[in-house]
Amino acid sequence: MLLGMEVDMTINIEDLNNLHIDVLREIGNIGAGSAATALAKMLNKKVNMDVPKVKVMEFKEVSETLGGAEILVIGILLGVNGELNGNIMFILEYNAAQVLVNMLLGKPLDELNDFNELELSALKEIGNILAGSYLSAMSSLTNLNIMPSVPDIAIDMAGAILSVPAIEFGKIGDTVLYIETEFLDGNTRVVGDFFLIPDVESYEILLKALGVIS
């Protein structure tokens, strides 16, 4: 999850101290636990998700984190509605998405074929569950009413996938908060990148709710 912050004298990501980072990490922990439970019920099998990693980075570093602008990825995009508005995107490297689908559907992990309609639908549902779980956790900790929309999915190079949020980030700043989502199955691990892009008006609402500004 990447959480953009407006860079000005009132709302600045540098105002995020260790306590605020801990609050956002806790949102990740609660969301990951809730998502693992929901996925386990949907798939009728245990789903393990590791403790999320949280760090601050510049938006221009994001494609490098994903493996470069030319790497093929799956992007799942959802709108955010309610007291916060904006977009959420969950990004998986293409082969990692194939492994994740195999992991969750009980197929051999090394079976790497093109996605069929059922598998793409499963990926959209995974993104939907993750988004719902993280937003529910954020809602619980901020008392804000936040809901995801129906997800869309795209397969493209990371640079192209990121061009949509890049346009949004360009309006408000270039620094983001990154929260990594990691799925585990035995010795196999799949890392996904999950980020939230609130619209300009939502920044102050979110930071006030988190206690970053008064």
Automatic annotation (TrEMBL):
Record InterPro entries: CheC, CheC-like_sf, CheZ_family_phosphatases
Sample GO molecular function, one term: hydrolase activity
GO terms classed as biological process: chemotaxis
Coiled coil: none
Start and end residues of each CheC-like protein domain: 20-55, 118-153
Protein origin, superkingdom: Bacteria
The entry's keywords: Chemotaxis, Hydrolase
CDD domains given in the database record: CheC_ClassI (cd17909)
Record's protein name: Chemotaxis protein CheC
Species: Anaerobacterium chartisolvens
Lineage: Bacteria, Bacillati, Bacillota, Clostridia, Eubacteriales
